[in-house]
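Table S2 (text version). Query chain:
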Amino acid sequence: MFTGLVREVGDVVGFDGARLTVAAPATAAGVDIGDSISVDGVCLTVVARDGSTLRFDAVPETLGRTSLGDLAPGSRVNLEPALRAGDPLGGHYVQGHVDGVGSVRSVEPEGDGKRTAFAAPAELLRYVVEKGSIAVQGTSLTVAAVDGTGFEVALIPHTLEATTLGALQPGDRVNLEADVLAKYVEKLVGR
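Corresponding structure-token output:
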């Protein structure tokens, strides 16, 4: 379980399509082998730690459902260690189970921030509501607007600086996770 509050932006130093290696000094200092880390919104298990470097395995199931396969040395990734008992919940409940891959439609300046629009799969959009929560690349965000093909968020300067979202360009693929509460409500109401 995560909160969607990115704790560090790491640098991909190696990825062979199965083993992902990320330089992440702050995150590496506080984790052990077997711990869960959200990497661009994908819950991955630390399989090795060497100083400030973490290694993760990415199986075909993960690569087929996320944008992790797009990573290469030099890519930057959002990182968040798993929530521990007693930690404050400052974002929203994020599982690290990506619901779909979307893409950036547009990025427009808006005051000191940016208004960013995303195209999203229809099966995910049914859980997206204006002023609701969504995780984009593992970052907890508030939905500013929704239409039939996607949604928009208003990114504040802190988010632009503390995550990889400030570097997004139209066409970039992103991992999306809808608010898990909406999925549970749908299941319960469907009964």
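Notes on Table S2: The CA atoms of residues 133 and 183 lie 12 Å apart. The mean pLDDT is 95.
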